[in-house]
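User: Run a structure prediction on this.
Assistant: Running it now.
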Amino acid sequence: MTTTAIYPGTFDPITNGHIDLVERGAKLFDRLIIGVAAFPSPSKKPAFSNQERLDLARIALGHVPNIEVKAFDTLLAHFVAAENAQVILRGLRAVSDFEYEFQLASMNRQLIQDVETVFLTPAEQYAYISSSLVREVAALGGDIEKFVHPEVAEALSARLRR
């Protein structure tokens, strides 16, 4: 049996922390789908369009063989079911992430009982990186090249120059 996992997120932009989790998750599962949320939560104002986020994720993850990058605009539980996935992969950077992620995992367990949520922590050098911090550093003129793939850094810099 092939085990399929879905790693959902906004990925605005995809960071080296995300890439680290994908690389390690790809070793655990036969198939790993990076689910790019087409409609982020109302509290998030994406810097990039959905298509741009998909393209940047595909560029940054092109070296990982058993992954697919797909958009979804439904409830995560519906996307997981449509992809016949058995696992939801989530990242935990800090203790502060745990409560929210625990709530999500519990809700998803109610919506799709036969799907497990697996948590991975990023490598220590990525534990503090978040997409929102990367956007903020870039907006204030800081160097973001050690936090994201080079093409992501260029795309974000170009976006901010507009």
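The beta strands are 4-9, 31-37, 67-72, 87-91, 116-120.
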